[in-house]
Amino acid sequence: MSSAPRPVRRALISVSEKAGLVPFARALVQHGVALISTGGTAKVLSDAGLKVDEVAAVTRFPEMLDGRVKTLHPAVHGGLLARRDREDHRAALAEHGIDEIDLLVCGLYPFAATVASGASREDCVENIDIGGVALIRAAAKNHEFVAVVTDPAQYDAVLAEMAEGQGAIGDRMRHELAAKAFALTAAYDAAIAEWMARAEGIAFPERMAFAGRLAEITRYGENPHQAGAFYRSAQPRPGVATAAVAGQGHVLQQLRRYRRRV
Length: 262
Fold this sequence. Notes:
Layout: E1 6-7, E2 10-14, H1 21-30, E3 34-37, H2 39-47, E4 52-54, H3 55-59, H4 74-81, H5 87-96, E5 103-106, H6 111-116, H7 121-126, H8 131-141, E6 147-149, H9 155-164, E7 168-169, H10 171-199, E8 213-217, E9 229-232, E10 244-245, E11 249-250, H11 251-261
Parallel strand pairs: 2-3, 2-5, 3-4, 5-6
Antiparallel strand pairs: 1-7, 8-9, 10-11
Helix pairs in contact: 4-8, 8-10
C-alpha cells in the first residue's frame, strides 16, 4: 500500500444535503480541482458561479428512469476504481477515454428521514439510494488512490489536509474516510432491511443488522478492566437510549453525573 499523499485533480460531487457545499466546492476549485456533478448538485454549483461539468456530459448518456440511473456508467466507475499504479488499468482508461476521479463527495438519499416522516411506501422506496451507495463503495474500495467524503462535517478537515499537502490528501486520511464510508453504507442498508422486515410484519428476520451512532465512550465496559461505549440507534423504542428523568434531562446525562460521583 502506498503512503504518499495523492493530489486531487478531479472531483465528483453528488449530495442531497447542500449545507456547506458551495464554500467547500469553491475551495476545491482554488486548489485547481475540476468539478463534475449530477443534476441538482450541478445546478447549485453552477448558480454559485462555479465551473462544473454535468455527469451526463462525461458519460455521454442522459439521466434516465426519473433519475434512477445517472452515475452507473464505466466513465464514472472506471475513473473511481482504476489503480493508478497498474499500467493495464491506466491503458484501459486511455483506450476508452476515461479520466481519473481523485475525490468523491457523496451524500445519500435521506431514507431514514423519509421513513420517520411517515411517508408512503412508494416514497420510501424511491429514497433507497442505489447510485450513491455504488459510488461510495467504489471510491472507498480504491482508497489507496481516491478520497471519499460522505458527510459535510468532514469538509473542513479535508480542506485543511489539502492546504497542508498543497492540494493532496494523505494516506491516513484516505483510510479514515474509507472506513467511515463503509460504516455509512452498512448502516444505510441495515435501516432499509429493518424497515422492509417491519413493513412485512417479520418479527425475527433470518439476518439481523444493527446500525447505531456513537453517543459516548463510557468510563469502562461491563467490568472495570474492559473498554466500552454507548451507541444509540435511530429507532425511537423505549429504553435507556431514549428515556429521560422528569425535569432532569436525558438518562445518559444522569448516568454520567452518577459516574462522576462514584
